[in-house]
Amino acid sequence: MDFLKVEAVHHTYFTKTSAVTALSDVSLKVEEGEFVSFLGPSGCGKTTLLSIIAGLFEPTEGTVTLEGRRVETAENEIGYMLQQDYLFPWKTIEENILLGLKIGVSLTPDKKAYALQLLQEMGLKGVESQFPKQLSGGMRQRVALVRTLATEPKLLMLDEPFSALDYQTKLKLEDLVSGTLKSFGKTAILVTHDIGEAISMSDRVFLFSARPGQLHKTFVIPKELRDETPFNARNHEAYPAIFQTIWKELESLEPAGER
């Protein structure tokens, strides 16, 4: 059985005066424990597809299943991490990381201990009683990841989670997130505009064409890169070739006037 299966997904946004097709006939599969990225021109429907996979709304046509069940029924099995951390500023860090468990009515002493252990593993020991404003942007994103992992989702959706950070923090967080997800055997989908980020973090990269978004090509990242941390992968001798290949393919998808 396929872990995640997207079949013939088509989505159109309707308004009173127009209809805009964001996705057209998208089909793909993701295996359990795999890290994949969605890459493509702006407006190609990457985030729309991520939202459909997360079960936030149904596609106009097509189906998405997680372990054979439609994602609309996969409650609490999908975690979402966004560009903004969306921590509640009036709650402590401990209260923030336990929020998902409270909402899901699944907060137990064992799960609380697990969440606090995750916080420590993220290098955030001792911040439990602090508030978000007392932490840096990178620290807040680590807290957001702990909040997501605390509910033990089977699938993680990462929607440009590092794009608001400075470059040095971004690189460090890529390594941390990648290592954490690998250690837990988590399946993840990353939406990004950064080719380097997609290559260094992923097992496969799905490249989408411009609107309406269609799956244009799939790139399997060489094993020698997959075995490295994201930072080391960027400095590996095999990295430039795959970067240039994806870059040229992505450039070919841009309208002539935008090249």
Features:
10 strands, four-stranded antiparallel β-sheet, six-stranded mixed β-sheet, 259 residues, alpha/beta, globular, 10 helices
Question: How is this structure best described in words?
Answer:
The protein has ten helices and ten strands. The chain is α/β, with parallel strands linked by helices and 259 residues long. It has two domains: 4-74 and 156-258, P-loop containing nucleotide triphosphate hydrolases (Rossmann fold); 87-153, no CATH class. The strands form two sheets. The chain has a six-stranded mixed beta sheet with strand order 6-7-8-3-9-10, with helices on both faces. A four-stranded antiparallel beta sheet has the order 2-1-4-5, with helices on one face. Helix 7 (195-201) packs across helix 10. The longest helix has 18 residues, at 167-184. The mean pLDDT is 89.
Distance between the termini: 42 Å
Count of DSSP-assigned helices: 10
Average of the residue pLDDT scores:
89
Q: Which architecture of the largest domain does the CATH hierarchy give at level 2?
A: 3-Layer(aba) Sandwich
Strand content: 15-25%
The CATH superfamily name of the largest domain is P-loop containing nucleotide triphosphate hydrolases
Strand order of the largest sheet: 6-7-8-3-9-10
Give the H and E element order: EEEHEEEHHHHEHEHEEHHH
Uncertain residue ranges: none
Pfam family, one: ABC_tran
Keywords: ATP-binding, Nucleotide-binding, Transport
Protein name: Spermidine/putrescine ABC transporter ATP-binding protein
GO molecular function, one term: ATP binding
